[in-house]
Amino acid sequence: MRWSLGTARVAATLEKKITASDRATWVQGTVEDWLLEGHKIAQQIASGDLPSGPTPDLEQSSEDASVPAVEIQLEKAGVRLASILNGGLR
């Protein structure tokens, strides 16, 4: 996905990918569960293939490889926030 499209277009593109099954699955659990899930994914992306020792220079390919995970996490965040807000309106 091209992030330079603008936030509204990025959001619309991500929203189109979300299925009813995704929504049902992603709202399961607690906010703490979601936090821990996101933290685990961030750790895997940020340090999965990094060598030990001094801070390495990250290449563009490393950043590009994280884009699919970032997109899914944004989709989940939108679904989960909507669920919380809709629950508060009832």
Summed up:
This protein has 90 residues and is mostly helical. 71% of the residues lie in helices and 0% in strands.
Description of the molecule:
This protein is mostly helical. It has one domain (3-48, 59-88). Helix content is 71%, strand content 0%. It has helices spanning 7-17, 20-26, 31-47, 60-88. The chain starts with 6 loop residues before the first helix and ends with a helix. The model has no long low-confidence stretch (mean pLDDT 84).
Taken from the alpha-carbon principal axes, the silhouette is: globular
How helix-rich are the residues, as a percent range?
over 70%
Series of H and E elements = HHHH
* Major β-sheet annotation: none
Kindly report the oligomeric state of this protein: single chain
Average pLDDT taken over every residue: 84
Topology:
Layout: H1 7-17, H2 20-26, H3 31-47, H4 60-88
Helix pairs in contact: 1-4
Main traits of this protein?
single chain; 90 residues; mainly alpha; 71% helix; 0% strand; globular
